[in-house]
Amino acid sequence: MTSECGDLWVFGYGSLMWRPGFDYLERVPARLNGYHRDFCVWSHRYRGTPEKPGLVLGLDRGGSCRGIAYRVADGKKEEVLAYLHEREMITGVYAPRILPVAVPESGRQVAAQAYVVDRSHAQYAAGLTPEERAALILQGHGTAGPGRDYLANTVGHLAELGLTDRRLSHLLALVDGMLAGTLPVPVPPAGPPAHPANRPGARPDTAI
Fold it and tell me: Of 194, 177, 166, 173, which is closest to residue 37 (Cα–Cα)?
């Protein structure tokens, strides 16, 4: 794996692809093997409420994920890591990892900071069917807006990059079918109690 003079690489698979929030030297399409992008994190504030939870993205084990890798100057490394910690580690559902990420356009493999879902955390949404996920995304509406917008934005930005995520495209088709009334809407699962950091008056959950 390569690095440039100690520079930091960061892998983005969700909102980091279009809203990184930090300065970078390089932005390139990349692939992370061994993990896939999925709506597998309960959201009680950002895209839902304690009464009507939604879902946000996480990197879960298995498969592969195409996204964006950012190269950050060595002198900005600590600042960016602190920003990412503030953004992603509010409830502890994401675990920071240094993982090998392939950069196809140059044939490089770089060691990148990524945030993967902690399956032992209460916010990990395990065992849901695609239809249940779609129903939760459809009902979810939090401080950042509707869950459907978050899903559509992710699919749209992937398309702008020439990328397709079949799992997310299928979810969007289910959500839109339910919204249009052409598909039945299952009763959304209740989910776990809201994490203290996501209760009213606290800072919202988020997702890379």
Answer: 166
Task: Give the C-alpha distances (Å, rounded to integers) separating 12 from 58, 120, 167.
Answer: 11, 22, 17
Number of domains in the chain: 1
DSSP conformation class of 125: -
Helix, strand or coil for residue 28? strand
Tens of pLDDT along 44-98? 998 999 999 999 999 999 999 999 999 999 999 999 999 999 988 888 999 999 9
Is 155:175 a contact under the CB 8 Å cutoff?
A: no
> What pTM does this model have?
0.87
Q: Which two tokens stand for residue 104?
A: 């196809």
Place of tokens 């699919």: 155
Is 78 in contact with 13 (CB distance < 8 Å)? Answer: no
Does 1 fall in a domain?
no
Catalytic residues: 88
Q: Is residue 205 part of a domain?
A: no
For residues 16 and 14, what is the distance between their CA atoms, to the nearest angstrom?
5
State the residue range of the domain holding 167. 8-198
Residue 64 forms part of a structural domain: yes
